[in-house]
Amino acid sequence: MKLSKKIPEYIPADSYLEVSNSLFRDIYTLFCGRQKCPSLYSFGPAVRECYLLHFCLDGCGDFYANDQHYHLEKGQGFLICPNELTFYQADEAHPWTYAWIGLSGEQVSHYLDLAGISSRTPVFRCPDVDLIRSDIDDMIAHHTLSYSCEVHIQGVLMKILSYLIEVSSHPRQKEENGNSLYVSRAISYIHKNYQNPVSVQEIADYLSLNRSYLTELFVRTLHLSPQQFLMKYRITKAVDFLTYTDLSVEHIACSCGYANISSFSKAFKKVTGISPSQYRNEHQTYTS
């Protein structure tokens, strides 16, 4: 492919969000966006300071990294690693529309490796482009500077990573993908039953797995035990209740699967660093 020598005029993203992070360390979103590119629109050669995932939602284009050329079409994506010189360009006849997520954290490479995505294998599958588009738009919609939005965006990021692991075509990840399906089903079960007094043993029984093995899968995939994931998800929902409703703390505790205010408050402070009442005083947007 002959590259355009002309540096195109900067084209602003159709949708874009920079994310403030104060809660997460292993992996978190720095920014995300979506753009329909004009013919031969390009970026680079340039070096990035963070990990950057691009998802081709429509059309096609070309990506150059580590002296390799990759032609990408709808349903594929590519990874840019920190401090790597890369160049990418929209196709002349069928320029791509793509979405992107900038990532940072201590374990980014580990999470991406679970999906077989690395500097050595930067191109990956993402066949359900409607899902990716919807998730990116969901992130952008939660633009308010709040713990609630921060946790929500983290949840969407983990959903996208789970999907990339599930559809990975990298041969050495097949066993990991099978295991990630158990984790995905466990997460789905938690989402549907977090309001009930659900236990890790109950989740393991639902999946016909040994409890210890389920815990091993969670820790390997998410760096969290099932109990920790359940607690964080419950607190995510509690944050929404505290921010957007006038329900009492007692009712919120019950609605999030806690038997009493004491255990709820202890879990809430463990995740957010402050009490439920303090969080509500600082962040509530509900008005009667």
TrEMBL record:
<dbReference type="InterPro" id="IPR020449">
    <property type="entry name" value="Tscrpt_reg_AraC-type_HTH"/>
</dbReference>
<dbReference type="InterPro" id="IPR037923">
    <property type="entry name" value="HTH-like"/>
</dbReference>
<dbReference type="GO" id="GO:0003700">
    <property type="term" value="F:DNA-binding transcription factor activity"/>
</dbReference>
<keyword id="KW-0238">DNA-binding</keyword>
<dbReference type="Pfam" id="PF12833">
    <property type="entry name" value="HTH_18"/>
</dbReference>
<dbReference type="InterPro" id="IPR009057">
    <property type="entry name" value="Homeodomain-like_sf"/>
</dbReference>
<dbReference type="InterPro" id="IPR018060">
    <property type="entry name" value="HTH_AraC"/>
</dbReference>
<dbReference type="Pfam" id="PF02311">
    <property type="entry name" value="AraC_binding"/>
</dbReference>
<dbReference type="GO" id="GO:0043565">
    <property type="term" value="F:sequence-specific DNA binding"/>
</dbReference>
<protein>
    <submittedName>
        <fullName>AraC family transcriptional regulator</fullName>
    </submittedName>
</protein>
<feature type="domain" description="HTH araC/xylS-type">
    <location>
        <begin position="184"/>
        <end position="282"/>
    </location>
</feature>
<keyword id="KW-0805">Transcription regulation</keyword>
<keyword id="KW-0804">Transcription</keyword>
<dbReference type="InterPro" id="IPR003313">
    <property type="entry name" value="AraC-bd"/>
</dbReference>
